[in-house]
Amino acid sequence: LEVRPDCIIATGRSDYPNQVNNVLGFPFIFRGALDVRATAINEEMKIAAVKALADLTKEDVPDSVLRAYNKETMKFGREYIIPAAMDPRVLLWEAPAIAQAAMDSGVARKMIDIEEYKQELAFRQGKGARMHHLIMNRAKSSGGTKRIVFEEGEEAKIIRAAYRVKEEGIGQPILLGNADRIKEKIKELGLKYDPVIINPRNKDRREKYGEAYYAMRQRKGMTQTYAQEVMRRSNVFAPMMLHMGEADAVVSGLTYDYPDVIRPALKIHHTTEGVEKVAGLYIMIIDSRAYIFADTTVNINPSAEDLVEIATLAANFAKSIEINPRVAFLSFSDFGSTDHPYSNKVAKAAKLMKEKHPEIPSDGEMQADTAVVANFIEERFPFSTVRNANILIFPSLDAANISYKLLSRLGKAKAIGPILVGIGAPVHVLQQGDEVDDIVKIAAVAVMDAMSRD
To answer: Disulfide: which of 125, 258, 262, 416 matches 283 by Cβ 3.0-4.6 Å?
Structure first.
């Protein structure tokens, strides 16, 4: 038995490449047809479904799909000519194509706006998808003009994320690194992408940045020689690009420890005017609700005054993503039930917050269940001015960091972040091990941040 070497084979089996599975067709064909009240499913609609699937195979495959199929990479070719059955994007590609074909071919009884329909389909996938699209749409409203520097430009995940940022109109990526290595990696990934690449070791730019850095830091122990040398480090070079007006935002942290990104950025850009502390937030999507946890990444043992500033920064960010803030200062004590320095600190913060920002609904100190269970607080503490809190201010980094990670891993909550607030320029930090979707979201947050400073 011989097999032609140029054959491409598709089967119905899941243990072979190119599985032809009915789940790729029927659910999404019917979805699109029903949503425009089509009188029939005609040949034009079937062809539209095939073309949508074919186009999807040429897109970068999400990490969630790679993980489900235990693959390092999947790209269009002999072993990938049809999307995977578990790819969640099929709904968003195929159903709109069917709906459009039904309208174009005259069998639709209901006319719809396809772009609005795509967004509606995404929202049906849950609160997490709704928040994702809100952030993406806000970023895209910039016209895709903001220049985003990715410090770790030679990393495959960063390249894939930058490709999506460009293709989806979120911004203009700039990759830092060696051009030859980046282009070779792009070729391996099978992407049609010609990014802007800057090598921090380029002598002309490094000398120019070094001079500016020395002028900035010469009275803080910086020598001219070291200022030139340190520009070889992308975690210093990237925030200097912002300072020199050659970029609008920075995204970093996939291979760096968190402090190694924040410290150089603070030395160059400091904090926002009128702000003493930088803080890290996470948006936590739990069932159909969105919460903001703070401070999850920066301040180890914040004072009462620090907690007020963190709460204010979190509330302002919440407003930018259409969340009406209701702030709860968390403790192991409910409204003075335990007299202890730890709970007294939180009670002081709650009091200061009401004095400084009476326009922001806030209360505390309170336990976590008191903050998020409305019936509980109504029965036991009817005097409280906050019910169903959505901004949760933790008394320490220990509490906040542990809480968001346990919820993410054991409670199946969706986490978006970390989101850095209070810093003097749009510098945003990834978590080591972030997936491509996470990187794209942080890039979009960075664009929103840059837009807010225009």
So the answer is: 416
